[in-house]
Amino acid sequence: xRFGVLSDTHLYSMSTEFEQLYTKFLKDVDVLIxxxxxxxxxxxxxxxxxxxxxxxxGNCDFFELSPKAYLEVNGFKIGVTHGxxxxxxxxxxxxxxxxxxxADLICFGHTHxxxxxxxxxxxxxxxxxCQLKRRQGTFALLxxxxxxxxxxxxxx
Length: 156
Prior knowledge:
By secondary structure, the chain is α/β, with parallel strands linked by helices.
Protein backbone atom coordinates (compact mmCIF):
# COMPACT_ATOMS: atom_id res chain seq x y z
CA UNK A 1 0.00 0.00 0.00
CA ARG A 2 1.35 3.41 -0.97
CA PHE A 3 0.54 6.63 0.87
CA GLY A 4 1.22 10.10 -0.47
CA VAL A 5 1.60 12.60 2.36
CA LEU A 6 1.95 16.32 1.92
CA SER A 7 1.51 19.42 4.01
CA ASP A 8 1.95 23.16 4.00
CA THR A 9 1.44 23.71 0.28
CA HIS A 10 0.59 27.38 0.92
CA LEU A 11 -0.90 27.88 -2.53
CA TYR A 12 -3.81 30.25 -3.11
CA SER A 13 -4.77 28.74 -6.43
CA MET A 14 -4.04 25.78 -8.65
CA SER A 15 -0.87 25.89 -10.73
CA THR A 16 0.38 23.87 -13.66
CA GLU A 17 3.42 22.92 -11.61
CA PHE A 18 1.30 21.49 -8.77
CA GLU A 19 -0.92 19.60 -11.21
CA GLN A 20 2.18 18.06 -12.80
CA LEU A 21 3.53 17.05 -9.38
CA TYR A 22 0.18 15.44 -8.55
CA THR A 23 0.04 13.56 -11.87
CA LYS A 24 3.62 12.32 -11.65
CA PHE A 25 3.75 11.28 -7.97
CA LEU A 26 0.37 11.32 -6.22
CA LYS A 27 -2.43 10.44 -8.61
CA ASP A 28 -1.94 6.69 -8.27
CA VAL A 29 -1.23 6.40 -4.53
CA ASP A 30 -3.68 4.27 -2.56
CA VAL A 31 -4.26 6.97 0.07
CA LEU A 32 -3.51 10.69 -0.24
CA ILE A 33 -3.09 12.66 2.99
CA UNK A 34 -2.72 16.43 3.38
CA UNK A 35 -1.74 17.66 6.85
CA UNK A 36 -3.13 21.17 6.43
CA UNK A 37 -2.14 24.65 5.35
CA UNK A 38 -3.46 24.40 1.83
CA UNK A 39 -4.02 28.17 2.13
CA UNK A 40 -6.39 28.26 -0.86
CA UNK A 41 -9.53 26.16 -1.17
CA UNK A 42 -8.82 25.46 -4.84
CA UNK A 43 -5.96 23.10 -3.93
CA UNK A 44 -8.20 21.24 -1.47
CA UNK A 45 -10.95 20.77 -4.08
CA UNK A 46 -8.46 19.61 -6.68
CA UNK A 47 -6.97 16.96 -4.34
CA UNK A 48 -10.45 15.98 -3.17
CA UNK A 49 -10.92 14.31 -6.56
CA UNK A 50 -8.53 11.57 -5.43
CA UNK A 51 -10.58 8.45 -4.55
CA UNK A 52 -9.07 8.14 -1.05
CA UNK A 53 -8.21 11.66 0.13
CA UNK A 54 -7.89 12.67 3.78
CA UNK A 55 -7.22 16.26 4.86
CA UNK A 56 -7.16 18.37 7.99
CA UNK A 57 -7.26 22.07 8.68
CA GLY A 58 -4.06 24.03 9.17
CA ASN A 59 -3.66 27.42 10.82
CA CYS A 60 -3.59 29.09 7.36
CA ASP A 61 -6.82 27.45 6.16
CA PHE A 62 -9.90 29.61 6.49
CA PHE A 63 -12.47 27.17 5.16
CA GLU A 64 -14.28 24.30 6.85
CA LEU A 65 -12.10 21.31 7.63
CA SER A 66 -11.66 19.19 10.72
CA PRO A 67 -8.50 19.82 12.78
CA LYS A 68 -7.82 16.09 13.00
CA ALA A 69 -8.68 12.88 11.20
CA TYR A 70 -8.40 9.23 12.09
CA LEU A 71 -8.64 6.42 9.60
CA GLU A 72 -7.99 2.73 9.38
CA VAL A 73 -6.68 1.33 6.12
CA ASN A 74 -5.83 -2.36 5.69
CA GLY A 75 -5.43 -2.71 9.44
CA PHE A 76 -3.17 0.37 9.79
CA LYS A 77 -4.49 3.02 12.19
CA ILE A 78 -3.51 6.50 11.05
CA GLY A 79 -3.95 9.82 12.84
CA VAL A 80 -3.64 13.10 10.95
CA THR A 81 -3.34 16.61 12.37
CA HIS A 82 -1.64 19.83 11.35
CA GLY A 83 0.15 20.27 14.64
CA UNK A 84 -0.57 23.94 15.22
CA UNK A 85 -0.61 24.55 18.95
CA UNK A 86 1.37 21.40 19.73
CA UNK A 87 4.76 22.53 20.98
CA UNK A 88 8.00 20.98 19.78
CA UNK A 89 6.43 18.06 17.95
CA UNK A 90 9.66 16.24 17.18
CA UNK A 91 11.04 16.54 20.72
CA UNK A 92 7.77 15.79 22.46
CA UNK A 93 5.70 13.31 20.44
CA UNK A 94 3.72 12.40 23.56
CA UNK A 95 1.40 15.31 22.75
CA UNK A 96 0.52 13.61 19.47
CA UNK A 97 0.22 10.21 21.15
CA UNK A 98 -2.32 11.76 23.53
CA UNK A 99 -4.44 12.74 20.53
CA UNK A 100 -4.08 9.38 18.72
CA UNK A 101 -3.14 6.84 21.45
CA UNK A 102 -3.51 3.67 19.37
CA ALA A 103 -2.23 4.95 16.01
CA ASP A 104 0.35 3.02 14.03
CA LEU A 105 1.21 6.20 12.13
CA ILE A 106 0.72 9.86 12.99
CA CYS A 107 1.06 12.37 10.15
CA PHE A 108 1.53 16.04 10.97
CA GLY A 109 2.86 19.23 9.43
CA HIS A 110 3.24 22.86 10.51
CA THR A 111 7.01 22.89 11.17
CA HIS A 112 7.94 22.70 7.46
CA UNK A 113 10.65 20.17 8.40
CA UNK A 114 10.63 16.61 7.12
CA UNK A 115 10.68 14.06 9.90
CA UNK A 116 10.22 10.30 10.17
CA UNK A 117 10.78 8.29 13.31
CA UNK A 118 9.40 5.39 15.29
CA UNK A 119 8.77 6.01 18.97
CA UNK A 120 7.38 3.15 21.01
CA UNK A 121 5.02 1.40 18.58
CA UNK A 122 4.08 4.47 16.54
CA UNK A 123 5.64 6.00 13.43
CA UNK A 124 5.66 9.79 13.15
CA UNK A 125 5.75 11.46 9.75
CA UNK A 126 6.06 15.11 8.83
CA UNK A 127 6.40 15.38 5.04
CA UNK A 128 7.87 18.88 5.28
CA UNK A 129 6.52 21.74 3.22
CA CYS A 130 5.44 21.36 -0.39
CA GLN A 131 5.88 25.03 -1.31
CA LEU A 132 6.29 25.06 -5.06
CA LYS A 133 6.21 28.85 -5.26
CA ARG A 134 9.55 28.99 -3.44
CA ARG A 135 10.97 25.92 -5.20
CA GLN A 136 11.83 24.30 -1.92
CA GLY A 137 10.57 21.58 0.28
CA THR A 138 9.44 18.01 0.27
CA PHE A 139 6.52 15.65 0.42
CA ALA A 140 6.55 11.96 1.33
CA LEU A 141 5.76 8.66 -0.33
CA LEU A 142 5.31 5.87 2.19
CA UNK A 143 5.16 2.22 1.14
CA UNK A 144 3.66 0.09 3.88
CA UNK A 145 3.04 -3.53 3.00
CA UNK A 146 4.54 -5.16 6.04
CA UNK A 147 5.40 -4.13 9.58
CA UNK A 148 8.20 -1.77 8.54
CA UNK A 149 7.21 1.11 6.27
CA UNK A 150 9.64 2.49 3.70
CA UNK A 151 9.78 6.26 3.38
CA UNK A 152 10.86 8.39 0.45
CA UNK A 153 11.01 12.17 0.73
CA UNK A 154 10.60 13.77 -2.69
CA UNK A 155 12.19 17.19 -3.10
CA UNK A 156 10.24 19.87 -4.92
